[in-house]
Amino acid sequence: MSAVDLARLQFATTTSFHFLFVLLTLGLVTLLVVMQTRFTITGLPVHERMTRFWGRIYVINYALGIVTGIVMEFQFGLNWSGLSTYAGDVFGAPLALETLIAFFLESTFLGLWIFGWGKLNRWLHLALLYLTALTAFASAFWIMAANGFLQHPVGYRVDGNVLRLDDFGALLTNPTFTSALTHVVFASITVGGVFLTGVSAYHFIKRTPEADFFRRSLRMGVVTTALATPALIGAGFAQFPVIARYQPGKSEAAQWIGAPLGFMIIIGMVLTAVSWLTLPLLFKDAVIRMRFPLYLMVIGIPLPFVAAIFGWMFREIGRQPWLIYGLLRTEDAVSHVDASQILLSLVVFTFLFVVLTCVDWALIARAVRRGPDVAPAPVSPMVVTL
Amino acid sequence: MEALWLTVLGVLTVGYFALAGFDYGSGLLLALPRRDVSSRRIPFTLPHAHTRDETSRLVNPFFLGNEVWLVAAIGVLFAAFPRLEGELLSGAHSTFTLLLAGLVLFMAAVQLRLWWWLVFMGALMVSVGWGLFLAHLLEAPWPVAFVMPVLFAVHGWVFQNRCWKLFPVTAALCALPIPLAFSSIDVTGLMAHSDTLSLLAWVAIPIIPLVVVLQWSIVAISSR
């Protein structure tokens, strides 16, 4: 394989792994906001315990997800130096704003939230979670703005052989950005809903003594999924006219490109149908007493993750052969490094990301199995206070 | 504009190394023989040596802290110095592969807390990686790479033994080599247009002090 192919494969692999962490982070933080708001207003212990239990899982996933993001960020410079050289002035702006406004602040607010547990005024502590959630979505905002520019470049002027930032506002009203951002936001909320449902179902399968705790969680998961999926699908279909207008060749970029798109749509439809069918079954806990649906809920946990990867495959492969649509070809942006160096980093990072994902899964599974009431026994040093 | 962005980049890099120094330094010190709490004092061990568990607990509040500085520094490098970023990183491709692999390993190992030597390996890879990058910037022979792990380990030792008088000194020793070596690069012509830079300045200048204050509060709260 050539350096370009290896670099593309590496980008696809690391982004896919990174996005798995991102989805769960965004989904859980949204639901945590609801849980902790309820606790802060009502003072009921069950809401506090829910915030703690789901918060612990959220923090594990966040901490391990950070490093995948760092590798992603370095990868632009390591493998795609042509992108920064040519378009760094424009593409770099939303990227830098993401690191400064969103990630830099998000991690700091989250750190304060973790270590301030039980030590800060509870309204202040709630405010920290709101700020964490807000900056987390700001992160998605800027990254999608940067990606939208690659799909349909706007707001630039050509100056010699580089691009300059001409109209920053145009980057934020870019139609390939706004429609995709909504889609990504609802995809992450769907992931949160499906995850809550599946984990709670697991505890009912195991005949949990924490019936009230997981009944509430399961309801919250199902209702969230039912509310988020129609918006998710709507935002998905809303992108087709945008694609038809700005990237007419997208569905012909590769012969098989329709397949991931099709699977993604099917998964979205299935989740919508199933969550709406489950809603009436929440009445008098019918769905829990039937037991059979509980198994489907557990099996369903990976579905929205898989759908999201398929969606990204369509969006990114469909942009080829361009890195910046119509302006910069992918093959022209790859760094002048030896293919063997890219191969080495591809092998190393793929291996480590698989390990990291397994560690994430193992730590989350352990936190899930231990249930809501674990005495101090820390899951990880980061979450010792939760 | 040029001086401003070099300062911003410098502050972020210094912030990263000052925070990362005792993090990875503490990881490196895990390889030293440990004094068991119950056993009698063994010569040549640290006077206040902690158990390995205690070490990770001590580093705890700083843990998320250092990496956000690195992410912010690379983000600024990308947007403010676009013609430099790609060349700088791709020019040391394998060094960064080692460094980033160490970073991933360190994080996974600390979270997993099963084998201390994995934490040590991660810390070693990151610190040697920065050392190799330093040697690359200075065009110095590779043994220069060992400067960074040694400095990190000393800083970690000072931190674990709470020698607060020495602490700023070792923090500076960890923080300065790479920004100083970096300052030998001539950035004229490599920077972004002032249209991009002035947009970013509105964000970078208020946010950095805010993060410093907030991170300081994390430390203050967690030691309460």
UniProtKB/TrEMBL annotation, chain A:
The chain crosses the membrane at residues 20-41, 53-71, 91-115, 127-150, 180-205, 217-237, 257-282, 294-314, 342-363. It is found in: Cell membrane. It is a multi-pass membrane protein. InterPro entries: Cyt-d_ubiquinol_oxidase_su_1. Keywords: Cell membrane, Electron transport, Heme, Iron, Membrane, Metal-binding, Transmembrane, Transmembrane helix, Transport. Its main location: membrane. Belongs to the cytochrome ubiquinol oxidase subunit 1 family. This is Cytochrome ubiquinol oxidase subunit I. It comes from Lentzea pudingi. The gene is cydA.
UniProtKB/TrEMBL annotation, chain B:
This is Cytochrome d ubiquinol oxidase subunit II. It is found in: Cell membrane. The chain crosses the membrane at residues 6-32, 62-82, 88-107, 114-134, 140-159, 166-185, 197-221. Keywords: Cell membrane, Membrane, Transmembrane, Transmembrane helix. Belongs to the cytochrome ubiquinol oxidase subunit 2 family. The keyword Transmembrane helix applies. Signal peptide: none annotated.
